[in-house]
Structure formats: C-alpha cells, structure tokens
Amino acid sequence: MLKKINARQPLLLRAAVALILLGLIRAAVAFGWVPPEWGEIDAADVERAIDVVIMGVTFRSIHRVVTPVATPRNAEGVPLVPAQRRPY
Fold first, then answer.
1. Record's superkingdom (predicted)?
2. d(Cα 44, Cα 42) in Å, to the nearest integer?
3. In Å, how far are 15, 56, 78 from 19, measured between CA atoms?
C-alpha cells in the first residue's frame, strides 16, 4: 500500500514524514530529552534532511544497478564481454 501512495502522491508522503519528524523533535524538546536549541528548527530544515536521505538512498540504489562500462559483469560476477586476446 505504501508503494501505491508513494507513486501517486509523493509530495503528500514527503510532507507527512516531515511533519511527523518535526512533531517528534518538538515533543522531545518539550519532554526535555534533547537540548532546547533543537526546538528552533522549522519544516524547511526537516525537509532538507529528508532530501539528503533521499539523495543518499537514490545514489546507493542506482550505484548497485548500473553496469560499469569498462568491465561489465552480470549479477553473479561473470564478465559479460569475453576477454580479448592480444596478438602479442
């Protein structure tokens, strides 16, 4: 179900996650679990942090799937292009 929501309403999901994180941080400040300076963050700061996490996850997932041009290999590590024999 989360995949459907993410595919249909990605901005709504991102805003919901940002608001939940912001609420958790402010609740932690209210209970005294974290320093009061942390309560001064706003939604833009939380959304920037979410953007950084999304970029990291995207880079990691793309990096695992992309085949390098120099030595392409399949999922088992077997070379896709046979090694060329040099004439010398």
1. Bacteria
2. 5
3. 6, 21, 46
Tokens of 45: 């700061």
Confidence (pLDDT) at 5: 65
Query: Per mean pLDDT, which range of 20-24, 53-57, 63-67, 72-76 is the poorest?
Result: 63-67
pLDDT exceeds 80 at position 2: no
What mean pLDDT value characterizes the chain?
Answer: 77
Burial letters 58-86, b for 16+ CB under 10 A, else e: eeeeeeeeeeeeeeeeeeeeeeeeeeeee
Predicted TM-score (pTM) of this structure:
0.52
